[in-house]
TrEMBL record:
The keyword Transmembrane applies. Residues 431-514 form the PAS domain. The keyword Membrane applies. This is PAS domain-containing protein. It holds the Pfam family PAS_9. It comes from Ferrimonas sediminicola. The chain crosses the membrane at residues 12-31. Keywords: Membrane, Transmembrane, Transmembrane helix. InterPro entries: PAS, PAS-like_dom_sf.
Length: 677
């Protein structure tokens, strides 16, 4: 028997039988149980609503009693000259303020109306509460609940005595419409919105919920509730079934108000439709469950059979590639099945099986994940990948064995790269600037990223030295770098690089020794933290050597009426540089020289310089800071110091104009521009 259950068809038969038993038990849930559950749920909802209604009716009763005893009302009635308009406005304000109170009227001891609020086309008080017993400390009288099916209202009058006064006002009649209180019921359950009907002590029904889209009962519904009334009259709460309809009811008695009943119901036919829908859903779920379990069982048997074939193939394969190249075997999910000794040595792993290792752990990089996906989709991929915890990369070739009669595997062939191959490939693909320097710090080899930043080809880059390439920090020389490399493994500092189309950039430079022949590797990349350094005259000279003529040099001098502290001057200079950076073209350099801000624009025109000066003056107009501008044309042969000296000579010569302090190509010579002009 145990052998039969272990077979594929035996396990499927067990699954089908167990599912049939479970579904049979679920379908056997009887209608009476569902009716009881639904009835209990609705009864709890109605009971919660009845508690809420009782609280609101008691609040309404307390408001009526308070109105008759208000000190303001007594004050108005004690006035020898009764101001009826004022009294009517006061009563109208009370009616508007209190919920469900629609009108207030004052009568004398002869039942004559003294003053009252508007009744909005309703009849005034006609003694509806006169024959009722006096109740409570205030000895008020409360009318029965008057159901108006035509206008869908539940009317109620309170007659409350008024303290003795000189005008003979004996009592107040307060009219309320209880529909806003009793119709605030909206609850739902699996059968939809719960219906709710009110029955007064005469058995008159009035619909409170909005089920069916109508606020009034149909003749059939009215007849059914009239037949229900004798069955529930005198009862406090309960449930009963009449014909095919199930009713649940609850008696509500709140304060001095006449008791009434809240009734809800549902049809057994609708309950059967709901149960049928549940059975269909349960049956569909059971069918899906059976199919899923059968599929899992089939997959399990198929996998066991495949594993048996695969184990035999693995034993043969392992013997074959023991003496082959560096080879690894992976499943299509990336799990390492086996690897020969040479491959394990390349990866820094010891011998033996490594079933807990995965391709993503051995080669953890975005390029490795992309290569794996390509190998699975296209069948083959090759490239260089950094190995786990190794200092070098490996040449990896992935081959996906797929097709009829083949167990799906991924074979990885590994090849070690020489130092020269690794250096060349790194130079060709790195996204940062990279260069190979000789012992004299001249470029021997550069990658495409650096050539693109400089706007030069590989041959032109070989003519550059390190000082032609970057602006070193103050006090740093190539000899100092050599001394640092003699002590440490690397030299690393922030430098400035003059680019061909991005101006001058602050970068992080790192130099390490390549080999015993004295070659050095220079790496230029963006710093991890944003640079807060400001370019100076050294960086401006470096940019000037790479600028394209005609170039314009602009000097901006902040002028203060009262010399501010040093910290304030630094803040002002920073603001000027920030505003200037939003105006200048991309291929330009902003530098700080003492209290002056210098701007060098490559391949410039007079209109461009005048526009920059005018816009900067406009931005700082109206502030305590006044800007003064001087400009000079540079032809590539003039030194920066000479240009600055010319601008100092022409400073203040002409006010209100822009003066160029050196001849440019077909340009006028000297101009000076100040923010005051």
């Amino acid at each position: 028997m145990g052998r039969r259950v272990d077979t594929l068809w035996g396990q499927i038969a067990v699954i089908v039988c167990l599912t049939a038993v479970v579904l049979g038990w679920a379908f056997g849930v009887n209608l009476e149980s569902q009716r009881e559950q639904l009835g209990n749920h609705r009864f709890s909802e109605v009971q919660l609503f009845s508690d809420r209604v009782s609280d609101r009716l008691l609040s309404l009763q307390a408001r009526g009693q308070a109105i008759a005893q208000l000190g303001v009302l007594r004050f108005l009635l004690d006035d020898p000259e009764l101001d009826k308009p004022l009294l009517q406005n006061y009563l109208q304000g009370l009616s508007n303020k209190f919920e469900a109170i629609e009108a207030i009227e004052l009568y004398d001891d002869q039942n004559r109306l003294v003053v009252g609020t508007e009744l909005n086309q309703l009849r005034g008080y006609a003694g509806q509460a006169d024959n009722q017993p006096a109740m409570g400390e205030e000895m008020g009288r409360y009318s029965p609940l008057m159901l108006d099916s035509k206008h869908h209202r539940i009317e109620h009058w309170q007659r409350l005595p008024i303290p003795r006064n000189p005008h003979g006002v004996a009592y107040a009649a307060i009219y309320s419409d209880l529909i806003p209180v009793l119709s605030a019921f909206y609850r739902t359950d699996p059968m939809g919105e719960i219906p709710l009907v009110m029955l007064d002590l005469q058995g008159t029904p009035l619909k409170l919920s909005h089920t069916g889209g109508s606020v009034r009962l149909s003749p059939e519904e009215r007849a059914s509730y009239q037949a229900l009334w004798p069955e529930i009259h005198g009862q406090q709460f309960g449930q009963l079934t009449l014909g095919e309809r199930h009713y649940l009811y609850l008696k509500v008695a709140a304060g001095h108000f006449e008791p009434f009943y809240l009734v809800s119901s549902f049809d057994d036919h609708d309950l059967e439709l709901l149960a049928r829908d549940h059975r269909r859903l349960l049956g569909a779920s059971g069918l899906v469950l059976v199919l899923f379990l059968c599929w899992l069982t089939i997959q399990k048997h198929g996998l066991l059979r495949q594993q048996g074939h695969f184990k035999l193939a693995m034993d043969i394969t392992e013997q074959l590639y023991q003496h082959a190249g560096s080879t690894l075997l992976f499943t299509t999910s990336g799990k390492l099945l086996s690897g020969n000794p040479s491959a394990l040595k390349l990866l820094g792993l010891k011998g033996g099986r490594h079933g807990a290792l995965w391709f993503a752990k051995l080669f953890d990089s975005p390029q490795a994940r992309k290569g794996w996906e390509i190998a699975l989709e296209q069948g083959r991929w090759s490239g260089q990948l950094p190995a786990r915890e190794m200092q070098h990369s490996l040449d990896v070739e992935l081959c996906h064995t797929q097709g009829e009669g083949h167990y799906p595997l991924v074979v990885a062939n590994l090849h070690a790269l020489t130092d020269e191959e690794e250096a060349y490939r790194t130079l060709s693909r790195t996204p940062v600037g990279l260069a190979l320097l000789d012992s004299n710090y001249r470029l021997v080899l550069s990658n495409r990223a650096l050539q693109s930043m400089l706007g030069l080809d590989a041959d032109a880059c070989k003519k550059l030295s390190l000082t032609d390439l970057v602006s070193l920090p103050e006090g740093i020389t190539p000899k100092g770098i050599t001394a640092t490399l003699g002590r440490d493994e690397a030299w690393e500092e922030r430098v400035w690089l003059a680019t061909a189309n991005q101006g001058i950039l602050p970068l992080l430079a790192k130099i390490v020794a390549s080999d015993e022949r004295g070659q050095l590797v220079l790496t230029l990349m963006s710093p991890v933290e944003p640079s807060v350094a400001v370019a100076g005259l050294r960086e401006l000279r470096l940019f000037y050597r790479r600028a394209e003529a005609p170039a314009a040099l602009i000097r901006i001098t902040p002028h203060h009426e009262i010399t501010p502290p040093h910290e304030t001057r630094q803040i002002n200079q920073c603001l000027i540089r920030q505003q200037l950076a939003t105006l200048v073209p991309k291929h330009s350099c902003i530098a700080q020289a003492g209290d002056h801000i210098l701007l060098l624009v490559s391949n410039s025109r007079p209109q461009q310089v005048e526009a920059i000066a005018a816009e900067m003056a406009a931005r700082f107009r109206g502030t305590p800071l006044t800007l003064k501008f001087s400009a000079c044309w540079l032809d590539g042969e003039m030194e920066l110091n000479d240009a600055l000296a010319l601008m100092r000579q022409g400073e203040g010569a002409v006010h209100g104009d822009l003066v160029w302090a050196a001849d440019g190509p077909d340009y006028h010579t000297v101009r000076t521009y100040t923010g005051e002009s």
